[in-house]
Amino acid sequence: MKGWLLRNPEKMNDPSIVKIMKVVEANNIDLTVVDPLKIHVICDHDFDGKIYVGDEVLEVPDYVVAAFFTEKNYHTGSVLRMLESVGVLCINSYDCIKNVDDKLLTFQKVAESIEEVDFPKTLLVTDETSAEFVSKQFDYPLVMKVMHGSKGKGVVLVNTEKELDNLISMSTASAVGDEIIIQECIAASSGRDLRVVLCNGKFASAFIRQNEKSFRSNLAKGGKIVQYTPPKSVIEAAEKVAICLKINMGSVDFLFGENDTFYLCEANAMPGIAFDLQDMFKDLIKQVESMPEPLWKKRLREGEQTC
């Protein structure tokens, strides 16, 4: 069973990557690091199982671990779509990564199809957004964050309209390079949230991240992990979100509201530090074995002619 880890070989020092590679080495897993930027994207009706990576010619893998791109652009997205089109199991798929990478899109997808999952009211900041308008829509404090941030970066708590006006002016006047959103603050969840880990779209485990020194619970900001068994309703909600966003292996994070309510916070494509990685690779193999034979393999095996 051959797998690829899509990652720039010069950027392998991320803690999640280090953890994955230790498990790979210890269990003799056939996982090759391949730079997605070097993969040539070719769409060919007569595909023969060969993929061109720089000057190399490689056989199509059985699966790819694709959750740790350092570059997300049209090319890397096309790489994933090409691999999916020839029957490669992608963890996670192009659609999944697109859905969870965009925090606003995550909520829009959920609002469209899952009535029972609540989430913080969210506003996209544009040149037309004024602090006065926001104050009519939200109570203070509120949360302001970059759309595609991670590890708690680019997230601030805003307490007054004046403070918000200054932040909006700065964000719209500078080349931030990312969209900005404003969200309702779920005060009861300050400094803590619930992460539900999913494997093959199903509940695997859960834990609370909590931080006594910041409203941000992220481990990168000093948060700690406390094991937790969520209510059945939350597990069911997480699995519905996974289906909606096409998450195979990943997590769905919830905020704690008043009176035992929960709000969807965000979703993630395979946060490596949260997984039992040995079980993850075992499940990958099971998924590959259960996949239907791709058309190109059937054509080559049966010697079929194209029209």
From TrEMBL:
Q: Name one GO cellular component term.
A: cytoplasm
Protein origin, superkingdom: Bacteria
The protein's UniProt keywords, in alphabetical order, are: ATP-binding, Nucleotide-binding
The molecular function GO annotations come to: ATP binding; coenzyme F420-2 alpha-glutamyl ligase activity; metal ion binding
- Which Gene3D superfamilies does this entry report, sorted A to Z? 3.40.50.20, ATP-grasp fold, A domain (3.30.1490.20), ATP-grasp fold, B domain (3.30.470.20)
Under SUPFAM superfamilies, the record lists:
Glutathione synthetase ATP-binding domain-like (SSF56059)
Membrane-crossing residue ranges in chain numbering: none
| Start and end residues of each ATP-grasp domain | 109-293
Q: Record's Pfam families? A: RimK
Write down what this protein is called. ATP-grasp domain-containing protein
Q: Which organism is it from?
A: Acetobacterium paludosum
